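ZP: hey, is the pyridoxal-5'-phosphate complex queued? I don't see it on the tracker
AM: it wasn't, my bad. submitting now with these inputs:
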Amino acid sequence: MKQKVEQLIADRRGYDGADIIFTMNSAAQKRAATGASVINATVGALLDDDGKLVALSTIMETYRQLTPMEIAPYAPIAGDPAYLLALTQRHWPSLSSYGMGVATPGGTGALALSLRNLLQPGDRLLTASPYWGPYATLALENRVGLYTAPYPAPNGAIDVDAWSELAEEILRAQGRLVLWLNDPCHNPTGRSLSAANRHALMQMLRDLSSVGPITLLLDFAYLDYARDQHAVREALDDYATFGAEGSVLVGATLSISKAFTLYGARGGALVFPWCTDHALFNALSTSCRGTYSNCARAPMSVMNRVAASSALQSQLAQEHAHWSAVLTRRATALDASLRAEGLAGQSWDGGFFIMIDADDPFAVSDRLMEEGVFVVPTEHGLRVGVCGLRELDAPRFAAAIRKCGGPIPGVA
Ligand SMILES: Cc1ncc(COP(=O)(O)O)c(C=O)c1O
């Protein structure tokens, strides 16, 4: 018999508990099980052209070789320092220290810890819109409000005035500012900030840093899957220069979920490579202890083995290059197919997604389902996982988008 759980506190009632991404994915899988021909672009994991999850063989082989002592013991509460350094150096190879940092369960854990330690309950967090949906859940769970400024349009200039106005208002109201920036390889647009936009944003933060303490937290999830690795390198180098300058506290949420296709291993880190204040480390490691104690040892051991072997690193780089090329072909085919249907195309710089505009994304998504096409509707448009969309399916996908109400240039 269903009973109301009186024990559940009032504040925690009223959630529907559903995650739109997982709901849409299971709807697609259910339909496919009936034998229907389905395009499932809901998933946030890399699939091959047979729809099977990609598990990078360099990583899987390394994982298989782990000894009991690389798996079984507790890891240090704040994470194995060798792992933290290796993970940081994957992003900034010339750094000799990760500064202040801790291991976290995935990038998600790092995002959560940043809120616990850098904002007060009731404060406001700033990010770009559109954003990865769980940002809102993370804000809610950590009792902060999520406020957004617009992500620039393709080839457009960032609206610095909008960013600056909101950032300054928040900074003056609460005496501090935290900005989560998912760049390069933004989820869900699949784009990266241009150098000009990146510099404009950093200058805006630099200008405001005299008003109060600012944290720029770079949320890196998809950097290994980009059209142009040189552009990614350039962005990271820019952020490193900005971090070293010290006007703003620059940190990063790091993750091996996509980088190593170890989604289920929950490996990540929150690092502030240019910070030397141990108070930050003490606070973060206390959060670790008071939240999950320590993270899994085995993924740290995999990272350490990869870091110690240039052969493994070059094998892994080859696998990343292969899948980046696959994603590039998929995104290019999708762009061309949308244009062939008379729709606006979609550029892609990196990551697992692109975003398609729609007047009423939820209604369009319902109609797409009737065509056997599954995407994730959001208030900003349709999130399309190029990580799971075969190049071959791009024409059918684009035709369904046109039929079901995607935007036609020139028509309001
Ligand atoms: C933008 C963004 N940030 C962070 C994450 C964190 O992923 P994980 O917690 O698996 O490391 C994801 C995963 O999808 C993401 O898309």
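AM: back. The chain is about 45% helix and 15% strand.
ZP: great, adding it to the tracker
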